[in-house]
Every structure is written in structure tokens, then in C-alpha cells.
Amino acid sequence: MYRKDNKTEHYTVKANREGYPARSVYKLKDIDEKYRFFKKGDRVLDLGAAPGSWMQYIATKVGEKGFVQGVDIKDVEIEMKPNMRFLKKDMRELTSTHFTRGKYDAVVSDAAPFTSGVPSLDAGRSFELTSKAFEIACSILKPKGSFLTKLFDGEYTGDFHREIQKSFSSVKRYRPRAITKQSREIYIIARNFTPKT
Ligand SMILES: C[S@@+](CC[C@H](N)C(=O)[O-])C[C@H]1O[C@@H](n2cnc3c(N)ncnc32)[C@H](O)[C@@H]1O
Predict the structure, then answer these.
(1) CA–CA dist 125, 78 (Å, integer)
(2) Widest Cα–Cα separation across the chain
(3) Distance from the CA of 70 to the center of ligand 1, in angstroms?
(4) Helix (H, G, I), strand (E, B) or coil at 84
(5) Residue 155: inside a domain, yes or no?
(6) Does residue 46's CB lie within 6 angstroms of at least one atom of ligand 1?
(7) 70 and 91 in contact (C-beta within 8 Å)?
């Protein structure tokens, strides 16, 4: 019989108990506790936001003077608060016309493609979303802004890391504790954005 591994089960139960729709919130919490990623008043874009646990966490961190703008192809399953906005859209179709209300302090992306089961195809689709998130971050971040993205560790990791280093003065890779052993997921944490002139 199929049984979730202990880590997945532990974080799923914890998420249910603490009122989050997804256990992925504990990856973000781990990153935020280590890197102090969000601050009060921040304007944050959350790509691949459904079902909404990152949005829920970010909204409490940025407070009522900040806000979080989620984007996903699917609907979120959370109660929307005044400092949350949501756009149901394929992030690959986003352009600067969708962001007319000023620059952002942080862009985060937990977007993951619908998997086909073919590892090379899935890695390529995932990298397409990660690259798009980076492109959006470069066009809407304030100077000194931050970028956080999920990445499937593989052939693209080294080149992508080097590419991001051209735009951010600090770029780190981190595997939050909530990621299962068999997963190839890592997160890239990039700080201090320097717009190219
Ligand atoms: C792991 S889930 C994100 C979980 C979310 N961080 C949370 O805590 O609730 C990945 C999300 O990426 C979204 N996604 C995949 N491809 C997308 C695309 N092209 N545009 C927007 N969202 C996409 C999926 O619909 C899915 O909701």
C-alpha cells in the first residue's frame, strides 16, 4: 500500500494543524528564519502561489503596510486578506504591463510544472519557470531587492547560479529541512539586486 514518507506526513499534519493549505510553507519559514528574507512593509510577488500557504505566511510577515501579489494558473484556497492580491494566470505570459503599480522588494517563486514522469522533460519545464521568475524579478525589483526561487538541481544549476550572480551581489543555494531526501529541489536565495543599466 502507498504510504507517504515520515517527513511528508509530519509536515502535512503540522500544516493542517496550523491552518496552512500546503506543507511547502515550512520550506519558506525555514528560509526566512535563516536569511530574514521578509520585513514589515515589503511588497512581494509570489509566483506559483496556489494553494496559498506562502501567501498566507508572507502576508503576516509584511503586515498591513506591505502586500503580497500571488500568481498561479490554479486558484488559491485561502481566505484573502486586505494585503493579499491574486492573479489567475500562466506566469509565462506575464509582461511588465501586469505590474504597473511600482517596484517590488522581493520576488519569490515556488512554481513547479505538472510532471510528465520523464525526468529530462520535467527538469526542462521546471527550468523554464525558474528562468521566467528570474526575468520577472529583474524587471520589477527595486535596487537592493531580493529573489528566491525553487530549482531542480541538475545540469542547469551551475550556469543559472552564475547568471544570477551578474545581477545580485549575494547568491546562495539552500535545501530547507522540509524537503524529502529523494527530492532534487533546492532554493536559490539572491540578495541585493543591482539593475543593469
Ligand atoms: C508547489 S506548488 C506551490 C505551493 C505554494 N508555494 C504554497 O505554499 O501554497 C507549485 C505551483 O506552481 C503552479 N504553476 C505551475 N506552472 C505554472 C505556470 N506556468 N504559471 C503559474 N503557476 C504555475 C502550480 O499550479 C502550483 O500551484
Answers:
(1) 27
(2) 57
(3) 10
(4) strand
(5) yes
(6) no
(7) no
List the catalytic residues: 150
Tens digit of pLDDT per residue, the chain (197 long)? 445 578 888 999 999 999 999 999 999 999 999 999 999 999 999 999 999 999 999 999 999 999 999 999 999 999 999 999 999 999 999 998 898 889 999 999 999 998 888 878 888 899 999 999 999 999 999 999 999 999 988 888 899 999 999 999 999 999 999 998 888 899 999 999 998 76
Distance 51 CA to ligand 1 centre (A): 8
Domain count, the chain: 1
Domain CATH number, residue 60:
3.40.50.150
Q: What residue numbers bound the domain in which 43 lies?
A: 6-91+101-180
188 assigned to some structural domain = no
Place of cell 528570474: 134
| Residue 191 domain-assigned (yes or no) | no
